[in-house]
Amino acid sequence: MFNALIVEKDEDTGKTSASVAQIGENDLPHGEVLVAVEYSTVNYKDGLCIGPGGGLVRKYPHVPGIDFAGTVEESTDARYKPGDKVVLTGWRVGEAHWGGYAQKARVLADWLVPLPEGLDTRQAMAVGTAGLTAMLSVMALEDHGLRKDHGPVLVTGAAGGVGSVATAILANLGYEVAAVTGRPETAGYLKDLGATQIVAREEFAEATRKPLESELWAGCVDAVAGVMLGRVLKQMKYGCSVAAVGLAGGAAIEGALITPFILRGVNLLGIDSVMQPYEARLRAWQRIASDLPMAKLEAMVQPATLSDLPQLGRDILKGQVKGRVVVDVNA
């Protein structure tokens, strides 16, 4: 028997509740690889799955946790053997399939990636889906011509998980980073990560019908969408790109017009980390190991245990979690 965070749903009221309970290996879903989980983390999707579900969880009882890292215990797939260190992000694990908020997890081999050299399992979960998404964003911007001498790169939602890692990676690579935040108290934290400019969220709060605004940004990692993305697109420099990773400000692009795309050749790049193919994941994790400064990563980390997760799930949905939460499932 081992510990897991179990989310139950009352069918009469529709309300969910989450608590730590003991389960056995026979309770785990089908899969080719049994992993002794060491660390997990907390993402916005995890907050939904711990709490109201957000339409992501279809069957209860449920074990959330969309990320985990640990050691292979058993494998029927030749790619993995007992003792191998592995990382899992995406593939709807923690949503449609039981996830990493347990001391053991059983999953398909195709969903795993070998732990990259230079990272341990705790560091991998300090990165997690948020950091992987940030790295995929930076790679996409580079693939579309991002240059260090072309001006500042904007990062919206900069104090969140994706934004924090994107800020640290971009700064470490030598880019000038302008960090957008609605929490003035995070300015020191963002500057420590490498941001050279702090931009108040209020500067993007109002949608405009202007076809274009002054050219300010050489690139952007956007986790907000909504009104902010509508404004950012109009402020992009000629031929530059926005990597869109989230929708904290709403699914619509408020106030957006076609003009940035056809008059300035701006690119809007959609970044998905859930269904990324193996080779792209491997490339991103290798870049993380080489381009994300570990000291900066450690500064983002908030430690937690399984019993902390119900409250952390509520906090992240309210935008009250800064940086990265690393969950020691064995503590």
UniProtKB/TrEMBL annotation:
It comes from the Bacteria. InterPro entries: Acrylyl-CoA_reductase_AcuI, ADH-like_C, ADH-like_N, ER, GroES-like_sf, NAD(P)-bd_dom_sf, Zn-ADH-like_protein. Residues 15-327 form the Enoyl reductase (ER) domain. One of its GO terms (molecular function) is acryloyl-CoA reductase (NADPH) activity. SUPFAM superfamilies: GroES-like (SSF50129), NAD(P)-binding Rossmann-fold domains (SSF51735). This is Acrylyl-CoA reductase (NADPH). The lineage of its organism: Bacteria, Pseudomonadati, Pseudomonadota, Alphaproteobacteria, Rhodobacterales.
